[in-house]
Fold each of these.
Amino acid sequence: MSDHDPTDDPRIDESTTATDEPEPATDGGSSQPGTSDDADGVDEESKQDQLEEVRENPEGEDLTSDHGVKISDTDNSLKAGERGPTIMEDFHFREKMTQFDHESIPERVVHARGTGAHGYFQPYEDPDLGDEYDDLEEVTKAKVLTKPDQKTPVFTRFSTVVGSRGSSDTVRDVRGFATKFYTEEGNWDLVGNNMPPFFIQDAMEFPDLVHAIKPEPDDAIPQASAAHDTFWDFASLKPEITHMIMWVLSGRALPRAYRMMQGFGVHTFRLVNDEGDSVFVKFHWTPKLGTHQLVWDETTKLWGKDSDFNRKGLYDVIEEGYDPEWELGVQLFDEEQAEEFDFDVLDPTKIVPETEVPVRPIGKMVLNETPDNFFAEVEQVAFHPGNVVPGIDFSNDPLLQGRLFSYQDTQLNRFGSANWDEIPINRPVADRHNNQRAGFMRQEINEGKASYKPNSIGDDDPQEVPAEEGGYEHYAEKVDGTKIRNRSDSFEDHFTQARLFWNSMSEPEKDNIVDAAHFELGNVDRMEIRERMVYDLFNNVDHEFATRVAEGIGVDPPESPGDELPDHDREDPSLSMENRTPDTIETRKIAMLIDDGFDDDHVSTLKSALEDEGARVKIVSKLLGEKSGTDGETVDPDKHHVAAASVSFDAVLIPGGSESVDAMRQQGSPKHFVAEAFKHYKPIAAVGEGTDLLEAVDLPETDIADDGDLVSDTGVVTCRNDDLEEFAEAFRDAIAQHRHWEREPEEVPA
């Protein structure tokens, strides 16, 4: 749990509590926060107060059975003599073993590998909704979005999609981004992903998509990967998938951290106001720390060295006192605007470009508390897009419509009971009263004789609630049509937005997409599948892109652009991650490499300077145990070479001290650490004699300081004098850029 006391948000009134966070760094739009925690009903602590009733702490307590009987021996089963058979009457053995045998529940078919944390959501006081609307209450009656004096407790779960529960965090995959809001009006589940489009247009296709992308059924290979024949066979025959494939091949599928990952509601939803009027809405989560990626070589090494990388990253920053923050934004547009778009807003393979409808920030989410029990909270949390509150409703998106059935059905399978909503992590903090009273593992004890409506025995309680008093009422959309299995012609354009995405990428991002396609399709055995992807899909996105992919996978490059290539060169700057890099190094993890004989002043001064900027500096040495500096100061390393790797850090720093640097020059690990960080485009810095280690590594085409002047070259910052303030500032600026894509690291042997 976090004990961090963040600085006050200048946009929040002084009456807010000390848990409020600094102003989010976003890509546009102005926003105002809430002003008070004095709201009636639900507040930030409501869910924790409820969970406190079911928490158990064994400290200082006696060991008992599940039924409260004190146990004298839990190591030996009851036997007929010391060497005799175990006796059936050993109730403690049977209870203990039965609990163990049944302590797992079926893992999720998709999104099995997950991580979650508690926090709160707070609307802004006066969000800027542009010229169309003065106030959010004009478009929705949802109190969770419109009451700035209230912090609503939330639980957010991040996940990979394809892999099993034991797979690695850093595989190339879509990431789930699901948030359960415990509102005063009931639970609202915003169940989305870190990419705004989806693979398919209709929920009917979802079982086929998952069967294709999962391990192949004959040998159960590969795990947590799309790089095999069945997925790309499916994809090559589904042009609608093209837009999503572009996102999956990009760095969006390799997030640096959950706290540096966008989230999207994917579908078009509706907001409904008190008068019953509706507008369409797209939901966006924007991370305060920017949107950043890993590189492919990093991810493959992390599979073995730190397979829990993203999970640990989320928990570490919260427990070290940094509370990750996201801004919730909305794109609002009415039916008339939707008709004017050159795509169908009900098509989940499409986005609403921010160049057409800006994202308007309306509130913030802060995650500030880690789970007490991973199984009880992260594994048992169950989401359902059908969990909405008054003021939020659905569109006719055929994928969303299918999910409204599928999620409830999935929870019934996982938990074996319709009472999954009674598990503490899933229970609303709002009051619950209805006539559901039975079923497997029922928790509530419902009083009274009448469990039906209408009834006279119980005065017809519980009573229905009119819409004007807060009862949920669906938007009164007129529906009239012939029963038909067909798809609208407005869903038929599969390449316009895929081309928009490609056009919006920087050159390094395009290189990453091509490299990803080489890896993915390079693992496809059947030539006809590779050819279909190049000729039928990629060549209708961009001819150069298709040619570059073909050259890497043994396919003859197409001679001319595809017949369905869109005739546009539009771009949307918001789609490039390079445009989502705020000027901050908060929570960045810096490795400081030392050995005995380090420069005391370098270590203490630079560590303090970086930590003052919000970075997390970890001392790395050959062995654990106290290390001595040149002036007699000592430090205890946080990591040693066997357990530390550059892929787990954001940047590398080598302080001076001739004895320390000489020792590291004789060791392979520090030199590999630096070379590997350079290969992954990460910031590297060395001061004083520390520059000698960089020269020993021989970084290609990189200038290293010689007689004192500070040099900053493609993210490599070096200085031989003792102007540590200037050096620290230059290194800080290099870290804030995240990656230095202008390097040419191919020659680096790492």
Amino acid sequence: MAPDFDLLIIGGGINGVGIARDAAGRGLSVCLAEMNDLGSATSGASTKLFHGGLRYLEYFEFRLVREALMEREVLLRAMPHISWPMRFVLPYHHEMRFDSETPTSKLLSYVMPWMKGRRPAWLIRLGLFIYDNLGGRDLLPATTSMRLQGRSEGAPLKPEFQKAYEYSDCWVEDSRLVVLNARDAEAKGASIRPRTKVTSATVEDGIWRVSVNDRVANETYDITAKMVVNAAGPWVGDVLRGTLKSNQQGGVRLVRGSHIVTRKLFDHDKSYFFQGIDGRIIFAIPYETDFTLIGTTDSDHADADERPQITEAEQSYLIEFINQYLAKSISEEDVVWTYSGVRPLYDDGAKSATATTREYVLNLDKSRGAAALHIFGGKITTYRKLAEAALEKVAGVFPQIDEAWTAGVALPGGDFPVDGFDALVDALQAEFMYLNERWAKRLVRAYGTEARDILGDAVTRDDLGADFGSDLTQREVEWLIHKEYARTADDVLWRRSKLGLRLREAQIQKLDNWMADYLRNSFPAAAE
């Protein structure tokens, strides 16, 4: 029996779509099944950073940090519309205390017992020196020291914080990253099937027969594949033992990360890296022009099927944490939105969620008589390297596959220089005179060079059709439906964009109703 596909990938998060893109580009036939919208779980609920993970140096995870640091600039070059450099301010005070359970703390306590949980300035500077040089830099500037008094970076902080270090990392629009990888995979021949749930799997003559349910059409059918890739994220254990009936060893630790969003807390474009006495760190990041993103927490999460939501304790923790630094305290009344995601970390037996490894683990499993690859852990910064590592495992089943190819290759809309964003905005405004600067910047940040394709032949704003608020037009929504797999207002407002922060309830309902009508007319079979 000839299978329908070489690879069936279960899971439409960043790992799944990254593997689909890489594999399709190497000549394999690929099908990806995601039970909900693409990027609707972990991959759309990150802290939205391409970063090495400065705090992981405390746990001596040098390989992971080095790989992530090296990846930052590779990814920047491939997606300068949805990712950009960012400077982070790390305030320091000599009386600050830190967690005593990290490997670094234990070593320091042994060598310098009089420090009693403190971090000397030289140790933090050493860590930042390693961070600057472990993975190499070309685009990103090095760490500097600064005096905070009289500077905009010091204005939001309590006066006792007079010194800080400033280092580089990068922002990324996480859920857009997922969709763009899926689009590129499809352009290279992959079949991308959101809202398609895998329900069971058997092996016949060395071939997987997998039953799936199309949740829109409510139809069940079978897909055959020579190999299955289990990239189900928080559900990786359920798929491994439940769906695929494997005896393969390996566990997942579900760790919930929660974030809060407030109105803008400071008047500059840099972020803050705040350190706590419990060993945790949080970021405070400029967000969507008018807001500040604060996160994240690390809490064990019992059940993947339980929708992650911030708890009162987590929200209080984030507010109390940041108030240790802010001159003007915030409260629950300042919070305009919250979101939470579940990280499916490899269970290494660590005592706490914070200490659990962020390394990814790939297990090749042939116990059922056909090959399956199970993906544990990973972080958004290393998704491309994880995909390459997965394809190395796949090569044992498909020795004819082509060489690795994704490094620096632009994602859709990303075919312009890293420093070319402003020029692209200016060009778009010059061509489409009705665009104001804010609107043009949003379009280029979301779509890059494809913003021009969305606007097409529209000479006036009215040519773009219905206006749903905050410059979201019918023309853009149609693009998101036909090109980016959107089917609901939530898909558009919270994953393809964050315009849900700006639209009123009546506007959201208008969009949802319009999309339902449009889908019924455009895809009548799916709407039945």
Amino acid sequence: MNILKKIKSIQFLVCIAFLFIFISPTQALFVSPPKDPIPLIKQIFPTATHIGEKSGNVPIWSIEKNEQIIGYAFETNDLAKIPAYSGEPVNMLVAISPEGVYLGAKVLEHHEPIILAGIPESKLYAFADQYDGLNVSDRLKVGGNNKEGVIHIDGLSGATVTVMVMNVAITKAATQVARSLGIIKASQEIIQPMSTIHPGVYQKADWQTLVGDGSIRKLTLNRNTVDEAFVGTEVEHIDEATPEQKQDMFAEIYFAQADIPSVGRNLLGESEYRWLMSTLKEGEHAIALLGNGYSYKGSGYVRGGIFDRIQILQNGEAFAFRDLDHNRVSDILINGAPRFQEMSLFIVRAQHEFNPGVDWQLELLVRRQLGAVDSLFTSFKGDYHTLDKYVERPPLIYPEPELTLTQEVWQEKNTEVIILAVLLLTLLATLFFQDVLVRHPTFLHNFRHSFLVVTVVFIGWSWGGQLSIVNVFTFLQAFMSDFSWDLFLLDPVIFILWGAAAATILLWGRAVYCGWLCPFGALQELINVVARHVKIPQVELPWAVHERLWAIKYLILLALFGLSLDSLALAEQFAEIEPFKTTFLLKFDREWPFIIYALLLLLINVFSRKFFCRYLCPLGAALSTGNSIRLFDWLKRRPECGQPCKTCAKECEIQAIHPDGTINMRECHYCLDCQITYFNDEKCPPLKKMARKKQKFKEQQIQTVEVT
């Protein structure tokens, strides 16, 4: 009678917990509806006078104040549609300033019911608020260790994958927008480290030789080329050449790097070259310009000290020269050189970080006057490539390819992956050598309990590696639609555990995962071990009751599966019958009905081992459906097991052994206690009986006496 009263009390408490969770008005079923972006744009830009239509190859809204652009807004789904935990992307409105500063990030729509069930949406919005004031050129990362050049954003406990996907979507979309608007430049693909000029490489040469091998380059323009450059402008016919003048030379400029010995010494002579090199400071270089026709000097350097007709281009950077960088060349000594109207040496200062091993360009600006003040410019460029024999070029640096989100997550979780792999290999070795280990009961019990502690502390609380029936439904839904492994690879620990669960189900059935790798199952078992150690009375249900209660978890599984076919979000809400999220993902930091429910299940476990696993767990029910395909049956039994011996059945603390002695592998948790008894000749009745027979046979033997 006392047992039946305890059973009814337990069932009553479980029902009350269900009512708290599924009827509580504070946790009504809810899916985030899409929001209109325009009110949010007005909220971010309260002084805006006009919001343009979303348009362009990179779709954006332009926001203006009194006809002046004050910012841009865009949706991440238009530019970086990345699936989140639910398999659907989180669509966000992002606003940036014309300078590339984040002004706001707002969640427009998401399908993350796993968040809504345990984390208020306000935390998701607070995560997005962290982008305010950051720059699109910043390298942003959610959580992780500090690294140089990376700005870290606080994550969201229980929704790590979701916020990592949000971060990638925001930064990728913002980068595309900023590049399309010219706010930031595309990153350089290959880097040439700073090269050095060979100081001792010199060969006597004439003008024609240096021009012929490219040591000296030439930019030549005729008047027709210049006229064509101004076609369609307001100055098209100003200073236009007559048909007879079209082929006349407009400008002819020779240019070279004068601090290269074979160039500078041949052009300037020994004494002038030595003087030049003595004036150059570390990191400085000299460029020689020799010109006829249109002056490359102009008059700007006279008025303002700037040579406004020429500049040097390298690696996307441009720099001009001032009068302090200029030295006039009175004569060149190389044989065969033509006469020039202008001859100059320009010093490239160290702050420009000019690299003699990287190609550069001389840009000549040609101006035509439009009235007394205004003028229009066009430019012409000449390329220069330093010959290999003149410079020492270090090997090119190829930047590391940009990691995908999946690769980034796995790299971040590298330590967890390695430790988990070691744990799984250890478990695999335990299973393969179980017949040896069970002969050492004390060691095996201590080892198992230590393994369960690691499962709870590391896999459960530290890594959030608790599998859920929601994972099963997500996989099935993805399999029936556009399946992609990326969704499942976003959480390495969960992915590896699912792989381990699948492999062990194929080899040994559900038992291995539920008995060794499930954090909540391990927590229950450890609590019950302590309870038994302090002699707390245990409730053992009659076999007839116990056997029928098994069916509850299969009914729960069928109900959740039916809901998932209609709405995965709804199924995830009712999947809260699993206390996993409360216990491990949120660490009891959520609404009190969920906490009471989880604590209630753990309290029941003090009196009855693994109550939730045995009767309520839909995940265990789902895993047990694969039991029929398991390949191995390594739990040994004897003909006497069950008839007449009941030892193992009575000792099985989760009652997975039928009265007839057979082990129900759909309910077994592979604790190996029955195998310890199986090989213990002091505990197993059939072994004890065999031992007595052997002893009796020895006693009845008549010793043979030799007759001499």
Amino acid sequence: MGEGTVTALGHAGLRVDGDGVRVLADPWLSPGGAFLGAWFPFPDNSHLLTAETLDVDVVVVSHEHLDHLDLDLIAGLPATVPVVVPRYPSTIMQRRLRAIGRTRIVVLDAWERYRLNDRDWLTVIPEQCPMSHDSAVLLKIGARSVLHTNDARISLAQARRAMTEAGGQLDVMGVQMSGASWHPVRYEYDEVERERISTIKRVGKFKAVTRLIRQVQPRLVMPYAGPPCFLDDDLFELNSGLQPGGIFPDQGEALAWLADRIPDQRGVCLLPGDRIRLDDLEVVRDPHWNGFALDAGPEQRRQYLKEYAARRRPAIDAAWAANPVSRPGLAHRFKAHLESLGTLSEYFLARIGMTLRFDVSGPYGGVWDAHIGPDRVVVDLDGGTGHADYTLTMDGRWLDGVVSGRTRWEELLLSLRFTARRQPDRYNDYLVGLLKHADRAALRAVERFEAARDPEETTTIVVGGKQLQVSRYCPHAGEDLAETGVVVNGVLRCLGHNFEFDLTDGTCLNARCDPLLVTPAPYVEEAV
């Protein structure tokens, strides 16, 4: 690898080289994929899994999702290579790294610099709300800077500080423009409704990133980290490019959007192995991709994915083998697991207050109702008769992995190996937060963050020619609505996570969330 370069490794993975500096950032190269053999990098990046690529001084990983935290790859690196991670309320990343034998783990606080040598450094920029444990990584290599946003929704203020820390205009900015969501693709909607919701989420993500780029104005921007591809027969039709639309746009679609909205912003689409020279920002293409095109069309995409799936068949089979049909006693293990979650946070339970139904197929399955909140979790193993606010349908083999400790809840949800239904169809962030964290310290951090927000601070918006004062910060995750709020047909949408609020009374329309404060702006008489 040459000096002063950024090499795309596929998905969100980068290798950054400088004068005596070799860094892997969020590499995902192992052939086993992620999330129960459901996700694989697109396109196939296996040609980069070489000794040369992995000959590095340090690895930095932004968060625990296994398409970023490649445990198999990291386990094979020399013991002398440190792994740098952000400090989160939960220590799950450190525990997973220690479990694979890593002893050199460096935990960074936000904006704390890790020195790569006498002049070069990197730092981490966690999302402001601790409900999501995601971080951007800022690298300073010689006179050049790379902002590697990963999956983090950093604010404009954080981006401006990154520019200040780096000493001016950012040189390269990697942006994530493809969501990692099981909604709406695994929900029991008809195709029209599924695509309507997908479009809202896809465009919302694009708009949020566009706003950030427009303010930062890096010398070069590169979309990445999407889409993953789904090579298991059960999930194959979820792949992007097989039909128009969908929730997982590819890098080419993202770049086209940016070119249309910010025509003066230089952008580039990199395939695995393509490199950017940091001094002049020229791109050196990997000859591996001669004859390959992202926009070749749905039939060519389908054929490519079929051939890729054939190569990954052993990994997919291994994922199924590692999760055999459920064992006797699944129901009682499930009950004990769910009820133990109810001891972690009264704050979360009070904000969930719903019945979550599990319709579990396969040996030892059944229909089980978890009544969550207001102060505990009670599981009824003879469920299925009353109303359920939320229903998850899945094979018992995948659920057994969670309640037995092989798999985390969010890994199961991201695997897309289930279907879901909500009645009413409203998102509850606290339910997802309880399941994905399942950690007392992480849940307490969310409670402290939300208690510290000032609900009285407002910002002014104009709707239909009238000024309104609304809460400055989104009641969900604290996003600054002066930066991330857009108004469409009398509804304020926070582009951070697509929460929508009625501007007549502040009610959240599509999720369980505290309302916005909405009042007419005070009239100020103009000076004569």
